Amino acid sequence: MHVGSNLLRPYSYFHNPASGTYHFDTDHDVDFTVYFVLDASWFPLFPELSDEIYTFGFWSSCTGRRDPRVMDTLAKIIKDHFELYRDSILTFVCDDDDKKQMSRRRKFNGWYLLQRDSGVIKLDKDVMFEGKAKHTSILMHIDNRCFSVVSEAYLSADPDVTSKILD
């Protein structure tokens, strides 16, 4: 039996405007902090984008049991971010230092699938960095004023354009 998403039941969260972070606690007493950090290093040839490019990430007080409401909450926070900042560009790199790159990739795809009807588009690119394959993604709203330019620059993998990935 297919069980639908709990997207209508994300955890309550609060935004700390001073730090730009979001916080929520799960039913299992795990504290999550979600962040969007400005990171203009992705597209240095486009300084006009420097206030629009964010690296997305989160950390939790512990790892443990799988909680589908966490995915729904993260998807809701990302959706809310794009409602507030329509022209923003979210970047994500699946770190492979702990050999969990594929797990991170699946989770990020899951968050995207929960909100794909919101006008947000995800682009993926696998790159080589220091001899290792790295999976990267960017999220943008389809109405982003620079959608075409950013898409082309990202997918072209020109090291002069995506120095964050290929430097």
Task: Name some characteristics of this structure.
167 residues; alpha+beta; 7-stranded mixed sheet; 4 helices; 7 strands; disordered N terminus
Architecture overview:
The protein is an alpha+beta fold and 167 residues long. It is built from four helices and seven strands. Strands 1-2-3-4-5-7-6 form a seven-stranded mixed β-sheet, sandwiched between helices. Strand 1 (14-16) and strand 2 (21-25) form a beta hairpin. Helix 1 (68-84) crosses helix 2. The longest helix has 17 residues, at 68-84. It starts with 13 loop residues before the first strand and ends with a helix. Residues 1-6 and 158-162 have low confidence and may be disordered.
Describe the structure in brief:
This protein has 167 residues and is α+β, with helices and mostly antiparallel strands. Helices cover 28% and strands 30% of the residues.
- Count of extended strands: 7
% residues in beta strands? 25-35%
Content-based structural category: alpha+beta
User: Can you tell me the residue ranges where pLDDT is under 50 for at least 5 consecutive residues?
Assistant: 1-6, 158-162
What topology, given as strand order, has the largest sheet?
1-2-3-4-5-7-6
Q: Biggest sheet, open or closed, and with what strands and sense?
A: 7 strands, mixed
Q: Helical stretch count?
A: 4
Helical content class: 25-40%
Terminal Cα span: 47 Å
- Form type: globular
Overall average pLDDT:
79
Radius of gyration, CA atoms, in whole angstroms: 16 Å
Order of helical and strand elements: EEEEHEHEEHH
List the helices and strands and how they pair.
Blueprint: E1 14-16, E2 21-25, E3 31-38, E4 53-60, H1 68-84, E5 89-94, H2 101-115, E6 120-129, E7 132-141, H3 147-156, H4 163-166
Parallel strand pairs: 4-5
Antiparallel strand pairs: 1-2, 2-3, 3-4, 5-7, 6-7
